[in-house]
Amino acid sequence: MLCRNVERTLRALVSGVEDPKRPTGIWPFAWAVARQRIPEEMEIGLAINPTQLRSQDYLHIHLVRPRQDARKKLASRNPLRVERLEEV
To answer: Which of 46, 65, 71, 75 is the most exposed place for a label (fewest CB within 10 A)?
Structure first.
């Protein structure tokens, strides 16, 4: 389990991935949490709410395991795979 102090340190209200206030360790932290809950790396999906759909004007990161039918549909759309989330 990740240390609560790390979690508290990384929580900040930021408007999006483009916000300079975004914590530098947000991606490794989010990925570590996802890997704890979803052991199969290729089943992890990343979704970020776009600026025009941010009703509360802050960033939401979703690292989820889509259902099998959703994974098939997403695979047919040639999703982007990145090695380093810092580059997203």
So the answer is: 75
Question: pLDDT by residue (tens digit) across 39-57?
Answer: 888 888 888 777 787 777 6
| 26-34, long-range: CB < 8 A, 24+ apart | 26/61, 27/84, 27/85, 27/86, 27/88, 28/85, 29/2, 30/61, 30/63, 30/85, 31/63, 31/85, 32/2, 33/2, 33/63, 34/63
Which of 61, 13, 70 shows the shortest CA–CA distance to 33?
61
Domain boundaries, the chain: 4-80
